[in-house]
Every structure is written in C-alpha cells, then in structure tokens.
Design brief:
Layout: E1 2-6, H1 13-26, E2 31-35, H2 41-52, H3 57-81, E3 85-89, H4 92-101, H5 106-114, E4 122-127, H6 130-139, H7 150-161, E5 169-173, H8 178-188
Helix pairs in contact: 1-8, 2-3, 4-5, 4-7
Bound molecules: adenosine-5'-triphosphate (ATP) and ligand LXEULUCI.
Adenosine-5'-triphosphate (ATP) binds near residues 11, 12 and 137.
Keywords: ATP-binding, Kinase, Nucleotide biosynthesis, Nucleotide-binding, Transferase
GO molecular function: dTMP kinase activity
Function: Phosphorylation of dTMP to form dTDP in both de novo and salvage pathways of dTTP synthesis.
C-alpha cells in the first residue's frame, strides 16, 4: 500500500502523516514514512533554495526529479517490494503543482515522473483556504519562505484540486481539529488497510 499526502504549505500534511503512521503501526502494520524534498544532497539543495533564493525554473524542476529518482530507487521501491506500507509527505503531485505554477505543463510533469515513479494507491490531498493555510504557516513562527508566496500557493491549490475526480484521490478538508482530520483520513483508507468498516 502506497499512500501519498499532498496539499499546499500549512494544510497539516506533516502532522497528519505522523498521525496516520502511528495509527497504522498501532494496528500492527509495518510503515515506512518519508518526505520530499528528501534530506539527500538534491533535497537539501532545494530546501536551502527556499531560504536563499529559488533556482531557475528549469534547474529547479530537474533537481526535484533527481531527488525523486534517488528516493524511489533507494527507499520507496525497496519498501514497497517488501510489502511495507509507505507514507509520503509530498511526491510528484507537488512538482505538478509548484513547478506547474512556475509555468511548466502539469500534464507533462506527470508523464515525466510516472515514467520512473510508482503511482500511489491512495492520494490524500489536504485542502484548506489560502488565508487559513498562510496563518498556520505564520503560526509556526519562522515566517514564509520563497515557495510560500500567496499567488504561488493559490495556483498550486488549483492544480491539486484539478486531480479531485481521479479514482485514487480523496480531498480532505483540514479546516477542522487535528483529531477530526485524522478521522477523515482513516475513513478514506480501504478496509484492507485498516480502514473502518
Ligand atoms: N487541523 C489543524 N488545526 C490547526 N492547526 C493545525 C492543524 N494541523 C496542523 N496545524 C498546525 O499548522 C501548522 C502547519 O502544520 P504542518 O507542518 O503539519 O503542515 P504542512 O502541510 O506539513 O506544512 P508545510 O508543507 O509548510 O511543511 C503547524 O503549526 C501545526 O501544528
Ligand atoms: C516535493 C516538492 C516540493 N516542493 C516545495 C513545496 C514546499 O514549499 C517546499 C518544501 O516542502 P515542505 O513540505 O514544505 O517541507 O518544496 C516543490 O516545489 N516541488 C516538489 O516537487
């Protein structure tokens, strides 16, 4: 089972990825949790660019893809092959959204990624009004970074929501308490993966 959690910054992805992993582990499942950009060399370069200034659009897109290629081959594919549940905080849908917002065609980005990256079984898109998401980011105390500009996030949200009708996608409204959001996520799990009957 491969579960991806996506959404614009501040929607609660990290909070919910951790809670979902804890829920599944408590049910006896073996879970591998990970995130993108990774903490490898390409991911670190990208995270630093959020503070020091973004790379050129082309270089940024290529660097996210290099980071993902390494992530898929070293961590995601081996864990799935061992029958583990993989939970990712961001994946190539973020590239469609954020690099799509920078001018690339989201459909082309998807094609390029699906040539090497496995498609998840379940894509949870956490959704929240832009003002509330920005206020949650502000509440973390670190201010916003170069990826978290209002106009940018507005287009990213549109691209994420454009995926809503796909069969493996569930939109999760996160304008609720963390416990209520976790309940909605558990309700979206297939019963074979400890979802509720
Ligand atoms: N349901 C919720 N209600 C209120 N605050 C929340 C909720 N979920 C998370 N938060 C808070 O909002 C902030 C952002 O949450 P979190 O880091 O999980 O979001 P994120 O989507 O992973 O953000 P980013 O993509 O920027 O890393 C944190 O301070 C977190 O404690
Ligand atoms: C995977 C991925 C991420 N991003 C952007 C989105 C975020 O603003 C930053 C850092 O991620 P975090 O979850 O907030 O720590 O990276 C992107 O632009 N393209 C991608 O493919």
């Amino acid at each position: 089972m491969f579960i991806v959690i996506e959404g614009i910054d501040g929607t609660g992805k990290s909070t919910q990825a951790k809670r979902l992993a804890e829920y599944l582990e408590a049910k006896g499942q073996t879970v591998v949790s990970s995130f993108e950009p990774t903490d490898g060399p390409w991911g670190t370069l990208l995270r630093n660019s959020a503070e020091t200034g973004r790379l050129s659009p082309e270089e940024e897109l290529e660097t996210f893809i290099k980071d993902r290629r390494e992530h898929v081959s070293k961590k995601i594919a081996p864990a799935l092959a061992q029958g583990k549940i993989v939970i990712l905080d961001r994946y190539y849908f973020s590239t469609m959204a954020y690099q799509g917002a920078r001018g690339f065609d989201p459909t082309e980005i998807r094609k390029k990624n699906e040539a090497f990256a496995p498609v998840p079984d379940l894509l949870l898109i956490l959704d929240l009004d832009l003002d509330k998401a920005l206020s949650r980011i502000g509440g973390r105390g670190a201010g916003t970074n170069e990826f978290e500009r209002r106009e940018n996030l507005s287009r990213c949200r549109e691209i994420f929501l454009s995926l809503a009708s796909e069969s493996f996608v569930r939109i999760i409204d996160t304008d609720k308490s963390p416990d209520e959001v976790t309940e909605s996520i558990i309700a979206a799990l297939p019963t074979s993966t400890c979802g509720q009957q």
